[in-house]
């Protein structure tokens, strides 16, 4: 069977895109990156993708008079590249319900919080201000509401007493780079079943036990 063709949408440095690319570089990985697409012409991740020999494209939001036109151009670029699944990886545009519907259950996103806590921007600072003891990241199926949708993978990290937003973000980012390839692998292997608001992963044993911070 062929490998699942993935389009990665970025707006920035692209470290999650690079983690996905690293995973896809393994010969037995069930997915490949067919296109890295950015809405920002000078996004740092574009150079990272090119260095890896990945195909890149820019669909500059500023070049389009409407969101519908912008999304139609992205849609065309993705379909021309044969993309079957989209991974949002630091993509800073909100996709319309129309676009999400056209790629129903075929768009993943990664967010640096334990959703549904702290959706949206300034995630790490808000988690610190709320005083949570565990933070983390979430890979989920995209629905029209931002940072909403059935959850595929989460990882938790401790919040330390001397954390600031940067140190917490760095601890979470390391987990993001593990979670996103795992979620992509399960999607590409066809193990993911969406059951209402929940995701079931076929053939993966459930983890048990508690995680406490502080111990
Ligand atoms: C990550 O923290 C991701 O969870 C969020 O935006 C950031 C993107 O970082 N959606 P990078 O561009 O993947 O390095």
Explain this structure.
By secondary structure, this protein is of the alpha/beta class. 33% of the residues lie in helices and 24% in strands. The chain has helices at residues 15-24, 44-51, 67-80, 97-102, 123-130, 165-188, and strands at residues 4-10, 31-38, 56-58, 85-88, 107-111, 134-141, 151-158, 192-195, 198-201. The strands form two sheets. The protein has a seven-stranded mixed sheet, with helices on both faces. Strand 4, helix 4 (97-102) and strand 5 (107-111) form a beta-alpha-beta unit. It is globular. The model has no long low-confidence stretch (mean pLDDT 97). The protein binds 5-O-phosphono-beta-D-ribofuranosylamine. 5-O-phosphono-beta-D-ribofuranosylamine binds at residues 10, 12-16, 45, 89-90, 110-112, 173, 176.
Task: Quickly describe the structure.
The protein is of the alpha/beta class. It is built from 6 helices and 9 strands. The protein has helices at residues 15-24, 44-51, 67-80, 97-102, 123-130, 165-188, and strands spanning 4-10, 31-38, 56-58, 85-88, 107-111, 134-141, 151-158, 192-195, 198-201.
Defining key terms:
215 residues; alpha/beta; seven-stranded mixed β-sheet; two-stranded antiparallel sheet; 6 helices; 33% helix; 24% strand; globular; binds 5-O-phosphono-beta-D-ribofuranosylamine
Number of H/I helices: 6
Residue stretches low in confidence (pLDDT < 50, at least 5 long) are: none
In one word, what is the shape?
globular
Largest sheet: 7 strands, mixed
| Beta-strand share of residues | 15-25%
Please count the beta strands (DSSP E, at least 2 residues each).
9
Order of helices and strands: EHEHEHEHEHEEHEE
| Mean pLDDT across every amino acid position | 97
Task: Assign the structural class, choosing from mainly alpha, mainly beta, alpha/beta, alpha+beta, or little secondary structure.
Answer: alpha/beta
Biggest sheet, strands in spatial order? 3-2-1-4-5-6-7
**Radius of gyration using CA atoms only:** 17 Å
How helical, in percent, are the residues? 25-40%
Span from first to last CA?
Answer: 46 Å
Bound molecules: 5-O-phosphono-beta-D-ribofuranosylamine
């Amino acid at each position: 069977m062929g490998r699942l063709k993935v389009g990665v949408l970025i707006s920035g440095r692209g470290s999650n895109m690079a983690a996905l690319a690293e995973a896809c570089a393994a010969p037995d990985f069930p997915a490949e990156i067919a296109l890295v697409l950015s809405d920002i012409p000078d996004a740092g991740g574009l150079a990272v993708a090119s260095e890896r020999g990945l195909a890149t494209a820019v669909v500059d939001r500023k070049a389009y008079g409407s969101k519908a036109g912008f999304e139609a151009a992205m849609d065309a670029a993705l379909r021309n590249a044969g993309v079957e699944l989209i991974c949002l990886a630091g993509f800073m545009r909100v996709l319309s319900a129309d676009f999400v519907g056209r790629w129903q259950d075929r768009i993943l996103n990664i967010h640096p919080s334990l959703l549904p806590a702290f959706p949206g921007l300034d995630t790490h600072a808000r988690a610190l201000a709320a005083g949570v003891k565990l933070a983390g990241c979430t890979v989920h199926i995209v629905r029209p509401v931002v940072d909403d949708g059935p959850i595929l993978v989460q990882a938790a990290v401790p919040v330390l007493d001397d954390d600031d937003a940067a140190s917490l973000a760095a601890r979470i980012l390391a987990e993001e780079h593990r979670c996103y390839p795992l979620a992509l692998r399960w999607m590409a292997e066809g193990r993911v079943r969406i059951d209402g608001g929940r995701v079931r992963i076929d053939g993966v044993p459930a983890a048990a036990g508690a995680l406490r911070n502080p111990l």
